[in-house]
């Protein structure tokens, strides 16, 4: 699922992790700051990065894609805000019918 303000880089399948163990942390600083979604793999005590999220304010799609490829992840660009708004409006009008 694309996010409107973040590019996403999935490193591990969420099903590999213990339910309820996820949390979001900030990593890097300045123009390199981004988020990591971490959790505990099933049967493990230490946390592992599941997904990296790159804010569109400081990461272009190309820059985020390159960082994701360097980590060996599966990249998904941020959604277009207008596109998401249109989908939301369309689903609301369908609900009214």
Describe the structure.
It is built from two helices and five strands, in the order ββββαβα. The protein has 97 residues and is of the alpha+beta class. The chain has one domain. It has a five-stranded antiparallel β-sheet, covered by helices on one side. Strand 2 (23-27) and strand 3 form a beta hairpin. The chain is globular.
Taking the alpha carbons of the first and last residues, their distance comes to 26 Å
Which strand order spans the largest sheet, edge to edge or round the barrel?
2-3-4-1-5
Q: Quaternary status of these chains?
A: single chain
Domains (count): 1
Rg for CA atoms: 16 Å
Q: How much helix, percentage-wise, in residues?
A: 25-40%
Q: Main sheet? A: 5 strands, antiparallel
Strand element count: 5
Query: What is the number of helical segments per DSSP (H or I, 4+ residues)?
Result: 2
Which consecutive residue ranges, at least 5 long each, have pLDDT under 50? 83-97
Question: What is the global morphology?
Answer: globular
Structural class: alpha+beta
Q: What string, H for helix and E for strand, traces the elements in order? A: EEEEHEH
> What proportion of the residues form beta strands (DSSP E)?
25-35%
Mean pLDDT: 87
